[in-house]
Design the sequence.
């Protein structure tokens, strides 16, 4: 009996061995943005479905787990001359790899056609090269802060909720608040090879420091603040790069974090009434600080559906769609941010825009100046690991930072 | 002429040749390419500089130690558990078929599923701690002051982390060793065992002197395959601890090949691959030399 | 007699404990696949899924809105949502709690809190397969991917069994020279990390025109599996009792009949075991499929891609993982009889 069953399965599958391939018209997008299921759903329902209907095409939206997997995919395609991908959505930091390798089409003429809209030019250093445009920016995100509502019951002496909500508080206040909240109440984006350097950069920028740099005054202060917060940093900070899962879990202990807009928006969507959002703390420079990141969309060289891809970019970056495309972060279109409402998610975007306008911000255009950005991340990771395991303290901090700065210099091109 | 061709088709070498061609095309060629790549200096020409950089890296020694400890310790633990389970199932007690099916479940799970499963478990708010809490183990551990609050599994480092990985790996991998031994046991003629009992050997003796030598080829196969896989551990460590914190040989290969993107790091990746190959080769050769002589069948 | 009962109970206690050790993690994974977002990010985690959600609704007279609270896993009640607009609320409940309630029904049910000015509890049934449905909706092509995975797995089993079985037999039964070298060679192939040569290997296959085919994938999958099959079948062929075969010859069967009736059933468990390995390799692989497929993806690849989410949305990945596991479990179930075949 089992034998017959086996045989049936084999036979049925054999039939499929000769099955035909899907030859319907397909627009293929590879993206480093929109990896979450909910985000893909947003794209599908609000952007893709209408376009598919109008142009009688199927959109295949693919995301991989890491940016270098996407790069490998495009590289293999280009090397073997098997062009299937039409569009690429890349983080600003990785655009230079694609542009330098010659994998992207020049979209300067398309830009001239899209004259009904104004793209923010903050990211031209990443999206453009040699006067030509290769990517259109879609979103930008910055660092804000958020806390669980009950955390406001433990504010330190002299700090009021109004102060915090208006952004009139400093890193000292932040640390004091953390100490009132107790051990493990703050999340730091400490996962290796991930986003730590951006968080530290935000802290350093608020102190007037630069990025990437290890031993100027602003950065030194940032690391000193980390040491001061050491006991209040949640232990799983070293293995997670986002606080959203932890902060919506009242049992995790995490109540406060300086966080990137994307996971912050995710958390706010999941439990809006449990959280409060406010600007990041001010540093010694009298302002908040943040790295500004984001993504852009471009057309891959020798894309099979060039014309359709251009039409798609037109649709995707139009004011109505780009708000959805930005997935809760700042849409990089002047026209889009003119239309914000009152929901918690709109509040997040509003705070983001204010931060971009008023804080010390820095983009990621310097990534191409370094031999290997992952190694740069590693330099920062080493310092955090040292602090968390006690081998780096206020005594030897300066020495370690000088060493790290030397490592950093070695990584420059 | 016809005779010769007929002879050729009857030749047992026909069994081997297709595979040889297959491997030449799809394995040997890329491997040679990689080997050459590992000897390329950044400034052109051949040199050992990539190997030098690799040996001098601070991650090299930990990677080797972690890999060897993992491979051998997990092998020993898993072998005895697998052997015990195989023998147990072989007695065909009531419900052994169901038990076999349950034991095979971990083997069927894809790597990604295992990653999700254990990540969900090892979080501080994960199901392992939830389970401890439910069965009272959490309060017990707190009372005897072994732990202070929920265990933060992901913060383990060094050898402790390697042993945690060995435990998880045992959960996943023991069934695959077990089925090889079990397949060998199926051919074990019970008459041999009965014969030994008739002639006075007790159960344990019959096990040691009769059963094990007969299923030795299966055991050697299972151990060898497991050793080779064990020396190439990486994915489970990366899924739980990420890169670099707990280095393993193959984890370094993936790190230098995929996480770091310069062509310089690609070469280090290949150097690590070559080192892994040599280590595995040496271990395997030693293993077979040691056990080869005792294969009673070959006489 | 007593000793027997004690022995038997110890046996069954042992069996049950081991079974639990295997099943419990798997059960938790299944439960996560049925959980909603807030459950996934709470402590302690549940072993068995919950089928309904209880919302605690209160009307705030001053601010004139409803607030929705919920009892979380550790027992405390936490306010999670303020109702500004019922349509948005319905969407929120669907996304975060897997509850499918229309905005009119919500309005109706919540009205009680406003009118009586009391805190009320409203129970709703969860759409328990919500995560799975979302997964299929978002990852179109997962059904095709399923067929592709089966295809690739079958090809792999075929290639590995024929090439590998042939080598195994040759090593065990024939008098060819260089047996040691061949055994060593089949092992060596398993030793070199495929990962580091995956890119040159991929470009090679593309040049042979096997890009985006299940056959191309199967070829790569077979590389380690041919050696594996050879080793496993070799050790089985070696241990098949020569005397049995000789006995059957004495009793009048010819060489072919002997092979089919006697040797083959004995060797079947070995082929079963190696097919299992071949199937698992093909079914579970992601890295190779990633580089060598485009439109014709395997299910493992589709699910791997879905796992690129943050830790707060592991439940979707979990449902994808369960989908990937089920066929493998079925295959295992069918195969186990061959592994444990009664002889005699």
Sequence:
């Amino acid at each position: 009996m089992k034998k017959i069953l086996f045989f049936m399965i084999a036979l049925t599958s054999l039939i499929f061995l000769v099955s035909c391939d899907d030859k319907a018209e397909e627009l293929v997008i590879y993206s480093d943005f929109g990896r979450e299921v909910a985000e893909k759903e947003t794209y599908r329902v609000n952007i893709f479905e209408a376009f598919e209907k109008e142009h009688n095409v199927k959109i295949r939206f693919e995301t991989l787990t890491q940016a270098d997997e996407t790069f490998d995919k495009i590289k293999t395609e280009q090397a073997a001359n098997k062009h299937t991908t039409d569009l690429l959505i890349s983080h600003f930091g990785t655009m230079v790899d694609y542009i330098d390798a010659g994998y992207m089409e020049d979209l300067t003429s398309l830009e001239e056609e899209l004259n009904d809209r104004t793209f923010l030019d903050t990211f031209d250093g990443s999206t453009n090269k040699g006067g030509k445009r290769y990517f259109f920016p879609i979103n930008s995100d910055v660092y804000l802060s958020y806390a669980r509502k009950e955390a406001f019951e433990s504010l330190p002496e002299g700090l009021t909720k109004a102060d915090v909500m208006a952004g009139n508080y400093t890193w000292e206040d932040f640390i004091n608040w953390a100490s009132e909240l107790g051990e493990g109440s703050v999340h730091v984006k400490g996962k290796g090879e991930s986003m730590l350097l951006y968080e530290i950069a935000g802290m350093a920028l608020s102190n007037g420091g630069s990025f990437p740099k290890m031993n100027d005054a602003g950065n030194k202060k940032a690391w000193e603040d980390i040491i001061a917060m050491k006991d209040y940093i949640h232990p799983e900070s070293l293995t997670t790069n986002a606080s959203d899962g932890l902060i919506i879990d009242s049992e995790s202990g995490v109540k406060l974090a300086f966080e990137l807009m994307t996971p912050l928006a995710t958390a706010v969507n999941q439990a809006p009434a449990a959280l409060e959002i406010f600007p990041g703390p001010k540093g010694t420079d009298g302002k908040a600080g943040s790295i500004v990141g984001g993504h852009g969309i471009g057309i891959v060289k020798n894309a099979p559906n060039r014309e359709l891809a251009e039409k798609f970019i037109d649709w995707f970056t139009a004011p109505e769609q780009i708000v959805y495309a930005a997935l809760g972060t700042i849409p990089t279109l002047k026209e889009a941010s003119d239309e914000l409402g009152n929901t918690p998610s709109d509040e997040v975007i509003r705070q983001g825009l204010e931060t971009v306008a008023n804080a010390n911000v820095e983009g990621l255009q310097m990534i191409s100046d370094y031999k290997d950005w992952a190694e740069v991340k590693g330099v920062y990771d080493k310092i955090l690991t040292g602090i968390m395991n006690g081998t780096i303290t206020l005594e030897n901090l300066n020495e370690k930072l000088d060493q790290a700065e030397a490592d950093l210099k070695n990584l420059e091109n | 002429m016809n005779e010769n061709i007929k002879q050729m088709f009857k030749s047992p070498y026909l069994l081997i040749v297709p595979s040889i061609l297959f491997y030449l095309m799809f394995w040997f060629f890329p491997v040679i390419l990689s080997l050459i790549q590992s000897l390329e200096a950044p400034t052109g020409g051949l040199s050992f500089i990539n190997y030098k950089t690799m040996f001098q890296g601070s991650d090299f020694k930990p990677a080797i130690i972690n890999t060897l400890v993992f491979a051998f310790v997990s092998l020993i633990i898993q072998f005895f558990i697998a052997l015990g389970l195989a023998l147990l199932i072989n007695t065909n007690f009531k419900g052994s078929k169901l038990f076999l099916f349950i034991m095979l479940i971990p083997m069927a799970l894809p790597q990604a599923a295992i990653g999700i499963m254990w990540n969900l478990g090892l979080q501080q708010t994960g199901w392992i701690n939830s389970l401890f809490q439910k069965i009272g183990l959490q309060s017990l551990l707190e009372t005897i002051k072994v732990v202070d609050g929920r265990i933060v599994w992901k913060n383990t480092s060094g050898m402790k982390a390697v042993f945690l990985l060995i435990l998880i790996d045992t959960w996943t991998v023991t069934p695959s060793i077990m089925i090889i031994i079990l397949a060998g046991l199926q051919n074990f003629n019970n008459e041999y065992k009965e014969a030994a009992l008739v002639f006075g050997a007790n159960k344990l003796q019959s096990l040691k002197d009769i059963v094990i030598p007969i299923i030795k080829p299966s055991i050697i196969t299972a151990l060898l395959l497991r050793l080779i896989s064990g020396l190439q551990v990486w994915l489970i460590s990366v899924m739980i601890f990420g890169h670099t914190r707990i280095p393993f040989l193959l984890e370094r290969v993936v790190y230098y090949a995929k996480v770091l993107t310069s062509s310089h790091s690609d070469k280090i990746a290949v150097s690590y691959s070559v080192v892994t190959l040599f280590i595995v080769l040496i271990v395997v050769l030693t293993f077979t030399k040691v056990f080869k002589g005792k294969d009673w069948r070959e006489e | 007699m007593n000793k027997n009962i004690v022995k038997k109970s110890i046996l069954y206690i042992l069996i049950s404990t081991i079974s639990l050790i295997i099943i419990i993690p798997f059960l938790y994974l299944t439960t996560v696949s049925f959980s909603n977002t807030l459950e996934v990010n709470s402590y302690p985690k549940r072993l068995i899924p919950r089928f309904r959600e209880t919302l605690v609704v209160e009307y705030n007279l001053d601010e004139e809105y409803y607030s929705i609270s919920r009892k979380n896993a550790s027992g405390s009640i936490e306010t999670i949502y303020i109702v500004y607009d019922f349509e948005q609320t319905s969407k929120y409940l669907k996304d975060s709690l897997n509850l499918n309630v229309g905005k009119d029904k919500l309005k109706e049910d919540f009205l009680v809190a406003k009118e009586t000015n009391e805190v009320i509890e409203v129970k709703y049934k969860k759409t328990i397969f919500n995560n799975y449905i979302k997964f299929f909706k978002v990852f179109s092509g997962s059904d095709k991917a399923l067929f592709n995975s089966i295809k690739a797995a079958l090809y792999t089993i075929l290639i590995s069994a024929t090439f590998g079985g042939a080598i195994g037999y040759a090593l065990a039964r024939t008098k060819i020279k260089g047996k040691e070298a061949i055994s060593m060679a089949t092992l060596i192939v398993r030793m070199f990390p495929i990962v580091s040569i995956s890119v040159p290997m991929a470009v090679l296959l593309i040049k042979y025109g096997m890009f985006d085919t299940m056959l191309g994938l199967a070829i790569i999958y077979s590389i380690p599996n041919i050696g594996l099959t050879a080793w496993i079948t070799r050790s089985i062929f070696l241990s098949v009792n020569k005397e049995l075969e000789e006995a059957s010859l004495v009793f009048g069967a010819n060489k072919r009949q002997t092979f089919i009736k006697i040797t083959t059933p004995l060797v079947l468990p070995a082929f079963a075991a190696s097919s299992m390995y071949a199937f698992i390799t093909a079914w579970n692989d992601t890295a190779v499929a990633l580089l060598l497929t485009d439109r014709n993806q395997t299910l493992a690849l589709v699910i791997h891609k879905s796992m690129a989410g943050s830790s707060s949305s592991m439940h979707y990945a979990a449902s994808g993982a369960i989908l990937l596991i089920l066929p493998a479990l079925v295959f295992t179930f069918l195969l186990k009889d061959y592994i444990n075949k009664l002889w005699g």
The two ends of chain C are 28 Å apart (CA to CA). The mean pLDDT of chain C is 81. Chain C is about 65% helix and 10% strand.
